[in-house]
Amino acid sequence: MKNKLFASLFVMTFFVITNCKAQTEQQNKIGSIGAVSGMNQSRATHRATLLNNGKVLITGGFSADRSSLPSTEIYDSKTKIFFAGDNMSVARASHSSTLLPDGRVLIAGGYNGDYLDSAEIYDPKTGDFSPTGKMTQPRSEHIAVLLAGGKVLLAGGVGTGWTFLVDAEIFDPATNTFTKTGNMLAARESHTATLLKDGTVLITGGHKGRRAAIEIYKSAEIYNPNKGTFTVVADLTVKRHKHDAVLLDDGRVLVVGGSDERDSGGAYTNVEIYNPKTKNFSKIGDMRFARYKLQGTSILLKNGKVLIAGGSSQAEIFNPATNSFEIAEGEFETARLFSTATLLQDGQVLIVGGYDQHINISAKAWIYKS
Length: 370
What we know:
Elements: H1 2-28, E1 32-36, E2 47-50, E3 56-59, E4 72-76, E5 81-84, E6 96-99, E7 105-108, E8 119-123, E9 128-131, E10 143-146, E11 152-155, E12 158-159, E13 163-164, E14 168-172, E15 177-181, E16 192-195, E17 201-204, E18 207-208, E19 215-216, E20 220-224, E21 229-233, E22 244-247, E23 253-256, E24 268-275, E25 280-291, E26 298-300, E27 306-308, E28 316-319, E29 324-327, E30 340-343, E31 349-352, E32 365-369
Antiparallel strand pairs: 1-32, 2-3, 3-4, 4-5, 6-7, 7-8, 8-9, 10-11, 11-14, 12-13, 14-15, 16-17, 17-20, 18-19, 20-21, 22-23, 23-24, 24-25, 26-27, 27-28, 28-29, 30-31, 31-32
């Protein structure tokens, strides 16, 4: 009897220890970056949008000769191959690409030698692009956010004559029209916009002006879609532009990297958190690498952690439970500036294109696996 009891206890103890070890290993697993077949065209300041069918639409950007691209590609996550899509109606770089509730994609604005006020809709059922209503004014390097009601907020950026834009507009997919909404409190380029859980939008940082006249912001504001107005919230802990921001599962917003007036020489490791309950920002630590020009490449993973993929030659993982960063395995060979990162349906992340510190533009692609 004693031998049977001992054997039973041994098996149970072994099972508990093994199970705990497996859970700990899973929690501590950082994941890795690995190369896959690249795009057909080198691109930077392009856009990547996950479609409802699990494929990824890649649009525009600029190429090695610095010309804006009308071409598009589709990434098939099953075959891990890019294939050519139809061209957009015009070449676009630094435009926006927003998945609409009905599965279509709104492509708006951008630059191709001119600042664009045109917009078009991609229909994944046909693979076609078709013109839609014009924006209220030309804009490039703006932000675009799908609001809770299905409309799209577009705000800021740069317009004709290299002007920095304070105004914002709303696209209504029911009527395919753009209409003005309230102005931001500051003209902004290289800012971020994050949809909060209450349906409002947090705008952070950015700049206006160029070179010696540049003004980089610490300021942040909130857009209320019910009122169509922007209101001020507390400042960031540091001024920053060319940074990134991502909504965490608990409703807070992680703000990472960016730079000061020195651009690459002033790139930040600094990280802060916006708490919507207190409406304040607080510094929580530093990343392992300084990063800038990484907008849209910080991805909330299905396990609640955040992959920070852009702005450096290596990716890292933020754990909101411990406010800590760990380096993911694998490298991109060079820094990935103005690349894109897209969370796939299976939880992996596709990272494509961008350029290095010498503005060598890439067609390469990588997959992050946790």
